[in-house]
Design a protein that fits this description.
34% of the residues lie in helices and 21% in strands. It has 761 residues and is an alpha+beta fold. The strands form seven sheets. It has a seven-stranded mixed sheet with strand order 26-21-23-24-25-22-27. The protein starts with a strand and ends with a strand.
Length: 761
């Protein structure tokens, strides 16, 4: 086997014989390079020639980081000091390359880049094309691996009855030793072992494998100890005897496996005979632009097949290598997901970086995609035909949920844009899945600093995939395995891009305070927030804020926004609602901005209390359905009742909102006290409170909320200080003094009667 590397500059004298007859060689300064990848059988040297991709060569021009490619041309020579695992790798790698080209050629008719030539052979009186010699060899090796049980079964049948003693010949031809009146034959004669037709076919098969291993380097295990056909005798089989002998014994085989084995053996001798007879002809399977095959591999493993015109085939003539829609970077919610991903394959030598032209072209791809998306939502152009309009409607139906621009913030979503190049771990030569960030990463394209959500800020990343893994995955052509990889690698790309952005930007979720109109605010402060704010969420009240960590102006802007917004750090992919809730809790926004024109009257709602219509008070207040009812407070609070404007119910030692008080009237009830064994009725005052509209707080408050807070009048300032800002830690411990509570007269907690709600008078 001869080995060449694509585009490597060889000395002409070293490769002229190896490449003779393939094509016209260009000798420049006594150097020859091959711009093909694939397989070539050269009848002049009677050997297989493999041209392997340039990805094998690192940035220092070496294979495996230590071998000059010129020293690896003749792998079969003793002077080639490759380690055994390295030599094994090269043989296997050559096979994977051959298989990948076959898959590509099958899937892409009339591709114009694959050169294929096979020697015609005679069959049934007519010329017919066959597979290449390499195809036949690989089929033989695969048969050996997959049919071990067949060989074992045949050999058991072959050897049954053999190795039994032939007593007639043993007695007549050997001398016995008498021991204790018993003759003992030390050298018994066994029955003669003869080769039958089944065994002959197996011997021929393993002799072929032995020849292939010695001649071409494709080694495979030969587990049975047969006397194989070798040397000049096997050359006789190649020169035509092999085909004649196989035809003579063909009638003996009936099982499908045996017939398949016979066909493979015959194909090998037929192919080698035709090659031997056609000394002026060669056969080959080569691809002259392997980067196109690499692009096809990556497209098959990551891209979408059905992409509208204008996205891959852009109007300015640019053609995008890989395009698909997948989960967006900012949110993990499915309804808020999906954005366009733009990829470009780079078939370079290991360690090479894209040139400026490639980088600029990739940025242009993204700008064109943005404009294409905007066009979906623009009014119909008067020059647009009905056919064009129908295409737009179809595209909008498929991609209408993807909006790259937010009308309120005038911000633009981040479009994942990346390069994919090939890499090989020269130390392990592993075929495992391995995707890594390329170092260094491409530069960011932008017009302004600290404007991630700007149309002209374009992020470009670069990843290396294990060439051996993607090559073998493509060559196996297993649909299920390819789909599994597609899902996996898309997720890897997304998470990696998120990490890159999280390393350079601090992301926040923000929501306006109750008294702030967020739309109006963002319009009035447009110059401050342009390019920094975007609304990707289904909840239109929550915005994503991105601030460059290196910009000294980020912190002042953040402080300013916190005056009117709840702002909390929210990394890409995190749930914004939960972090906004924590921000509300931290800053006590319930009364921070809302202006109240009166005080709050607190009341305790017990679980077992009922209204006059037997409705559970606890249920009414828990579900915020007390509006329109009249609440009767049995114990009069202290303080100026004329100041109360709001009823604040305590439900389950928590408060989550309040009711307007529409009217307050005094009432009376009778309480019976027992004195000297006699019940004495005592008149007591009550408050009848007509309940108005319910207003929720921004959260449920529990810390500091206890039953003893009831029947008290609270100012908004007191609520903020003692509850919303959590300055005082209230407790249910009766022994703790409540020195910081507002002065109050507590009701008779021992009484069975308590507050109740009655129907409106």
């Amino acid at each position: 086997m001869k080995l060449l590397i694509e585009e490597y500059q060889y000395n002409a004298k070293d490769v002229v014989d190896v490449l003779e007859g393939l094509f016209t060689l260009q000798d420049v300064d006594n150097k020859i390079s091959v711009s093909y990848v694939g397989y070539y059988y050269n009848p002049k040297i009677k050997d297989c020639v493999f041209v392997l991709p340039k990805v094998l060569i690192d940035e220092h021009g070496l294979v495996f980081g230590k071998y000059d490619p010129a020293k690896l041309i003749h792998l079969d020579r003793d002077e080639v000091k490759l380690e055994q695992h390295e030599k094994k790798f090269l043989y296997e790698f050559a096979v994977w390359i051959h298989r990948a080209i076959v898959v590509y050629n099958t899937a892409n008719d009339n591709n114009g880049i694959v050169l294929r030539r096979v020697i015609e052979s005679d069959g049934n009186g007519a010329k017919k094309k066959s597979n290449t010699l390499l195809d036949v060899i690989l089929a033989l090796i695969r048969f050996n691996k997959e049919n071990r049980s067949f060989f074992t079964f045949i050999l058991k049948n072959i050897h049954s009855g053999f190795n039994k003693i032939n007593w007639g010949k043993t007695i007549s031809e050997t001398t016995a030793v008498v021991q204790g009146e018993e003759p003992i034959y030390l050298n018994p004669v066994n029955k003669k072992r003869q080769v039958n037709f089944d065994e002959e076919l197996i011997v021929i098969f393993f002799s072929i494998l032995n020849y292939v291993a010695e001649r071409f380097g494709f080694r495979t295990e030969i587990p049975f100890g047969f006397k194989l056909i070798t040397g000049n005798q096997f050359e006789r089989y190649i020169n035509g005897f092999g085909m004649r002998r196989l035809r003579q014994i063909k009638y003996k085989y009936y099982s499908d496996i045996a017939v398949r084995l016979w066909d493979l053996c015959y194909a090998f001798f037929d192919k080698t005979y035709q090659i031997k007879m056609s000394t002026s002809q060669s056969e080959y399977l080569l691809v002259k632009s392997f980067h196109i095959v690499f692009e096809a591999i990556i497209e098959e493993l990551i891209g979408d097949n059905d992409v509208p015109a204008g996205l891959k085939e852009q109007e300015d003539g640019k053609l995008v290598d890989h395009f698909y829609t997948y989960k967006g970077l900012i949110s993990n919610r499915e309804e808020e997901n999906d954005v366009y991903y733009i990829g470009d394959s780079k078939y370079y030598k290991i360690g090479s970086d894209p040139k400026n032209e490639a980088v600029y072209k990739q940025y242009t791809y993204a700008r064109n995609v943005i404009q294409w998306n905007l066009n979906l939502f623009l009014p119909r152009n008067k020059d647009m035909s009905e056919e064009q309009l129908a295409v737009r409607r179809e595209d909008k139906g498929r991609y209408g949920k993807i909006r790259l621009r937010d009308d309120v913030t005038e911000g633009y979503n981040v479009i994942p844009n990346f390069f994919v190049s090939a890499n090989i771990d020269k130390d392990t030569l592993s075929y495992d899945d391995k995707t890594e960030e390329h170092n260094p990463q491409p530069p960011v394209s932008r017009h302004f600093t600290n404007r991630l959500y700007d149309r002209d800020t374009l992020i470009l990343s670069h990843y290396d995939v294990n060439f051996l893994y993607v090559l073998s995955l493509y060559a196996r052509n297993n649909a299920g395995a390819k789909e599994a990889y597609k899902s996996s690698v898309r997720d890897k790309f997304r998470k990696s891009i998120q990490k890159i952005l999280n390393d350079h930007f601090t992301f926040y979720a923000m929501e306006a305070h109750p008294d702030v109109d967020s739309v109006k605010y963002l319009k009035e402060h447009f110059k401050d927030v342009v390019g920094k704010v975007f609304n990707p969420y289904q909840n239109e009240n929550i915005y994503s804020l991105a601030l460059d960590m290196s910009d000294p102006e980020s912190q002042p802007l953040l402080d300013k926004l916190k005056e009117d917004f709840y702002v909390a750090e929210c990394k890409l992919g995190d749930e914004p609602s939960s972090v906004i809730q924590r921000a509300r809790e931290q800053f006590g926004g319930a009364v921070r901005k809302v202006v109240y024109d009166g005080s709050f009257l607190t009341c305790l709602v017990r679980k077992n209390e009922t209204a006059e219509d037997d409705t559970r008070l606890f249920d009414l207040f828990s579900t915020h359905q007390a509006e329109g009812k009249t609440y009767v407070m049995l114990n009069m609070p202290s303080g100026d009742i004329s100041e109360i404007k709001y009823l604040l119910p305590i439900v389950g030692n928590a408060i989550d909102g309040y009711y307007d008080i529409e009217d307050v009237r005094f009432g009376q009830r009778t309480k019976k006290f027992v004195q000297d064994g006699v019940e004495i009725p005592v008149p007591m005052s009550t408050l009848k409170i007509k309940i108005g509209k319910y207003h929720p707080f921004d959260r449920t408050y529990t810390q500091g909320v206890v039953p003893r807070m009831s029947n008290q009048i609270w100012t908004p300032v007191q609520l903020k200080e003692y509850v919303f800002n959590k300055a005082t830690a209230y407790t249910t411990d009766e022994d703790v003094l409540l020195a910081q509570e507002p002065e109050a007269v507590y009701g008779h907690v021992e009484q069975e009667e308590w507050n109740y709600i009655e129907g409106i008078d």
